[in-house]
Design brief:
The protein is an alpha+beta fold. The chain contains eight helices and 17 strands. Helix content is about 15%, strand content about 30%. A hairpin with an 8-residue loop joins strand 7 (about 160-165) and strand 8. The chain is elongated.
Length: about 325
């Protein structure tokens, strides 16, 4: 089914290296438990005036415990962290240890970051990743998602210290988070015209597409070619679309999913699929036929970032927009 193969879940959106996977999962779980009801869940949207201030409002409050943590070293490098263990506190606290002068995070923006996690009871470093030029793959920071309370409306170049108390998820922890890069939601995986190396597609007499992968390196990001422009309604963000499609892997050209093979089109919301597929749909018209390639970051993440079988794969889709229902 389309939803199982293309739907973007929180586990897939949080594209992290195995080294810190448990830490980020715990981060989300703790905040979802501690901040439940603080804000409605939302999906990534383009940055707007006021969106950053909303994130400011949901950030974990400052506190003396977080402020007592001494952090030294350059942002982007593994920090030296010192505090008097055990730290005793009953609610989450946050402090901006270093305030960057870059772009401020707004609702839906994608953030590239580094993360180090420490045991608040012993001071032991538990996990670290994303430092020294190997950042953790970006994740969207949306109001109500959990990590929004950690990142808040921090600016690019900032270093954050967050202390979370003991809970059912585990012991008390101290997080040091470096905000390395902020990409506006509407710029993330934005579609561009095809380059010199791009697949081709041929349709059978029955309208079934066959995709051919060229020799050469797969392109980065999302590249899109409108094969045939329809004259129907325009697909807007959040609309429900009915689509026929065939998807192949760039690595070997094999088909991994096809509504044509199942004999019926798929239906889903544009905000319920991976970023690259979403970009291929929104702004297009009903009746259009489209060929799109998406690198792993815009699909199911880099290799090792999740257990999904398509992680690390550049994907290519030939799709036809059959129908659209407004949000």
């Amino acid at each position: 089914m389309m939803e199982r193969s293309l739907t973007s879940t929180r586990g897939l959106t949080v594209r992290i290296r195995p080294l810190v996977a448990l830490s980020v999962a715990a981060l989300s779980a703790v905040l979802l438990a501690g901040c439940a009801g603080s804000a409605p869940q939302s999906t990534p949207t383009a940055s707007e005036t006021g969106a950053a201030s909303d994130l400011c409002a949901v950030a974990v409050p400052e506190g003396d415990v977080a402020a007592s943590v001494s952090v030294s070293g350059e942002v982007g490098e593994l920090p030296t962290v010192e505090f008097e263990a055990p730290l005793e506190f009953t609610s989450a606290e946050r402090v901006v240890a270093v305030e960057g002068d870059g772009t401020q995070i707004a609702d839906g923006d994608y953030v590239t970051y580094a993360l180090a996690v420490y045991d608040a009871a012993t001071g032991e470093q538990l996990q670290a990743g994303g430092f020294d030029g190997e950042p953790i793959p970006p994740q969207p920071i949306t109001i109500g998602s959990g990590p929004d309370a950690y990142f808040g409306c921090a600016t690019e170049g900032s270093r954050l210290v967050v202390a979370t108390p003991e809970s059912q998820s585990g012991g008390a922890l101290v997080y040091v988070i470096d905000v390395l890069e902020v990409t506006p939601a509407d710029a993330w995986c934005a579609a561009t015209e095809p380059g010199d190396v791009f697949p081709t597609v041929e349709y059978s007499a029955d309208g079934i597409p066959t995709i051919t992968i060229p020799e050469g390196e797969a392109p980065e990001g999302v590249q899109l070619e409108v094969l045939e422009e329809g004259d129907g309604a325009t697909v807007e963000p959040g609309d429900t679309v009915t689509v026929n499609y065939t998807g192949v892997k760039w690595s070997d050209g094999s088909v991994f999913d096809s509504s044509y093979e199942r004999g019926e089109p798929a239906q889903f919301s544009t905000t319920g699929v991976v970023a690259g597929f979403q970009r291929a749909l929104e702004g297009q018209t009903v009746g259009s036929k489209i060929l799109v390639s998406m690198s792993p970051t815009c699909g199911y993440g880099e290799a090792g970032s999740s257990e999904h079988e398509l992680a690390g794969e550049t994907l290519v889709f030939a799709l036809e927009i059959v129908e659209v229902t407004e949000q």
